[in-house]
Amino acid sequence: MPRDMLRELILPRGHASLLARRRAEMIISRIRMIAGLFAILTPLWIVIDLLVFSWPVTILLVVGRIVTTIAFGVLAVSFRKSIRMRDAYRALAYMFSIPTLFFMYSHPLLSHFDMAGPAAAIAAGYAFLPFVMVAGLSVFPLTAVESALFAMPVLAAEALVALLQLDMLNWSSHLGAFWLLFLIATVAALAGMSQLSFMMSLVRQATHDGLTGCFSRTSGEELLDIQFHIASRSGAPLSVVFLDLDHFKKINDTHGHDAGDRVLRKAAETLRGNLRSGDILLRWGGEEFVIVLPGANGQTAASAVARLLKIGLGLRPDGSPVTASIGIAERLADSASTWHELVEIADQRMYEAKMGGRNRVVGCTPPLPQGAVVNG
Ligand SMILES: Nc1nc2c(ncn2[C@@H]2O[C@H](COP(=O)(O)OP(=O)(O)OP(=O)(O)O)[C@@H](O)[C@H]2O)c(=O)[nH]1
């Protein structure tokens, strides 16, 4: 497994990424579904409580169940769909706090009364609530750290309740229960990580272009949207580079489609390998690429492009270097109010570069310092 992927399974990263968006969507929709289900199941158990427990336990449990039902119901209907992990964390915290509080209320209550027969069996069932909760973590695609953080309050509640009842049970049985809870939490975290890993590969397949491994146009547009919003909110610069390989059709026509594919793959590989980690490379279509440079002003973007072209975009089948016509646009310098506008400006400049004779860069105003032609 690549080290990057392993790191992402352990620590939550890239909250502005496409994976984070899909993950938030999935977590929130599952929480709404589970909360809805528990809003129905929790009051149904009142019938069992009424049958097996006697006054005043019954009424106290019924009150607890009604409050719990309302809390689950509110969670199921009030949480809007969201693509932000912050909202997913809030929903998870809310959902896990409901049964945790119910456990802390019901378990000490039941242990204050001597019970026998079916009542004792049902009362013992209440003690299993924390086990069910930590096992429930496996339903969500979470990293190891996230699972640990959400399991911790449940473990703390179990420890607290055990401390309050030390006179009733001995230390060893409490330690045994705690150890079992810890093991279940570990298994649930592993299940959550494997879900996350599966999700990562699905998201990767859906968001990347099969030939070049770059982000596809659709996912790239979503990333542009995210980056444009981040830059607009913080007032930071954001550059877009529109790059179109020159005379690409000739490669296909002369050497065949496979040779064209190899040239595309090589160009994408060199571009990707020489960008900074926060930069985004997407295949806009055919032989067109768009590079998104968050935080880069026009000058920085021009330097980055000059560096890339110095390294080169690979060779054509006849051994001559692959060249490209390039347009650069920057959010602030070009007063772009949407990412569509920004890409449009970069695209127009790429077209100017084509019209100017190809194999050149047209940047934002003021014009590029070292002359427009690069790698000429
Ligand atoms: N091999 C291969 N060719 C592709 C792919 N996608 C698009 N093309 C080809 O890329 C060529 C693009 O041709 P044009 O738009 O005329 O561009 P060009 O020949 O590079 O000319 P200029 O852009 O004007 O320099 C077309 O022949 C497409 O069929 C692909 O995935 N693989």
Automatic annotation (TrEMBL):
InterPro entries: Diguanylate_Cyclase, GGDEF_dom, Nucleotide_cyclase, Rev_trsase/Diguanyl_cyclase. Its EC number is 2.7.7.65. The chain crosses the membrane at residues 31-53, 59-79, 91-110, 116-140, 147-166, 178-198. It is an enzyme of class 2 (transferase). GO terms for molecular function: diguanylate cyclase activity. It holds the Pfam family GGDEF. PANTHER family: DIGUANYLATE CYCLASE DGCM-RELATED, REGULATORY COMPONENTS OF SENSORY TRANSDUCTION SYSTEM. This is diguanylate cyclase. It comes from Noviherbaspirillum denitrificans. The lineage of its organism: Bacteria, Pseudomonadati, Pseudomonadota, Betaproteobacteria, Burkholderiales.
